[in-house]
Amino acid sequence: MTTNEDSKDQIGLLKSIWRQNGEGTWIVCGAKGLDLKPRQGFSDRYFKIEDELSLLTDKPDSVENLFTTFGTTEFLVRQSIVPVIAWSDGDDEIKCIGTGFFISATGLLLTAAHVVRDPIDEGYAYENKIDSKTSKLSENLHFGIILPANPAMRNAPFGNISQKIREAECFICPFEWTQHWGRDIESPLFDRKPTFKLNLDIAICKVRSFAEIGPYQPLNVGLHSLKVGDRAVAIGYAEMKNIRIGSFEQPELVVSVGSVSTIYPDNMTEKQNSTPGPNFEFNAKIPGKMSGSPILVGSGIIAKGVVSRSWQDEEHASGCLIAAMMGLPIVGEKTLLDLQRAGNDGIARVSGADL
Fold first, then answer.
1. What is the pLDDT, as a whole number, of residue 190?
2. What is the pLDDT of residues 31-47, one digit of tens each?
3. Closest by alpha carbon to 85, among 200, 241, 214, 213?
4. Tens of pLDDT along 279-302?
5. How many degrees, rounded to 5, is the angle at CA 328 between CA 335 and CA 260?
6. Which 3 state secondary structure label does DSSP give 156?
7. Is the predicted pLDDT of residue 269 greater than 90, yes or no?
8. CA-CA distance, 315 to 234, in Å (whole number)?
9. How much is the pTM?
10. Residue 227: which domain range?
């Protein structure tokens, strides 16, 4: 990623490659910045990515890392920023419901809470309460993400790659669990069910790990500030179409660039705008299905927000602040900050001025 002052307008993404050491602790074994350039015919504020061949590390420590750390720019970005999908047993198609992004090598992923509530809100799944904090959706409903496979695997001279993996166009990786924060609001009408109100529009999900895929490639998150006027870059899958079972068409990423216009750090108590929880607004074009996309603010090294909502045909959108959920308990009662400090999940700790 270009860092000199003359190239300060360049859009970049910092990628890190992880492995476990002998003690089981996750360590970074490589890192590289990717320049995200507009494809010919697109503006520099809203564009698809110009593909260039890149190599994230010249010392891959495994076959899995070898095939996920080289390829075109978009292929490498898509190892970290992924379509979020849902499907029910017997469906003819997979529903593409939003965008998500990895924040740990073990498969922790962030998206918008309203993305994982889509099956309930749209009426194709039902929610069963287990206790005051836990619900279970319909048994036949599944969530997951799509990872692209590297075409170079097909003719690779390695005997330990199965034919199924060699021929794959993509990998569908299901969620093990999802978590978001909100509460039921009772209706004054006795015949109406309670409605669910989000406290903040962020969900954390655990994607199942697979030995054949290897470590996931996270983006960096952290407790870093932002200010009005900072550049805000959202990267996601605009207007994705559902996928027919038995066929697959690679979705394409879109990069949308704007700047932070307003910040609402106390929105949970003061209710300053309609986006749930602490959030900020930015002036970028955000079409449907980009909900849940990471928002890289400032230098682009840190994802500070998650796309929450946008206004149709306007360069006006909002993003929930990731910092607001990093101290909240998740599965196992540990917080994201606890996991980051422990080093057992491959969550980067990034520090420095002006991040």
1. 65
2. 889 999 999 999 999 99
3. 241
4. 999 999 999 899 999 999 977 789
5. 110
6. coil
7. no
8. 12
9. 0.92
10. 12-342
Residue 6: is its pLDDT beyond 70?
no
Q: What is the CATH number of the domain that holds 25?
A: 2.40.10.120
Question: What distance in Å separates the CA atoms of residue 218 and residue 79, rounded to the nearest whole number?
Answer: 8
350 found inside a domain: no
Q: For residue 259, what are the contacts with CB-CB under 8 A and spacing of at least 6?
A: 229, 230, 231, 232, 282, 283
Q: How many domains does the chain have?
A: 1
Q: CB-based contacts of 248: which residues, under 8 Å, 6+ apart?
A: 169, 170
Q: Per-residue pLDDT for 165 more than 80? A: no
Q: What distance in Å separates the CA atoms of residue 235 and residue 330, rounded to the nearest whole number?
A: 25
Alpha helix segments (H runs only) across the chain? 63-68, 73-77, 113-116, 118-121, 163-167, 267-270, 336-342
**With b meaning 16 or more CB within 10 Å and e meaning fewer, what string describes 67-88?**
bbbbbbbbbbbbbbbbbbbbbb
Which of helix, strand or coil describes residue 223? coil
Reading the block at residue 324, the tokens are: 């607001």
Helix/strand/coil for 164: helix
In a domain? residue 348? no
From 202, 203, 205, select the one nearest 177 (Cα to Cα).
205
- 207: tokens are 């994607």
User: How much of the chain is helix, strand and coil, in % rounded to 5?
Assistant: 15, 40, 50
What does pLDDT average to over the chain? 86
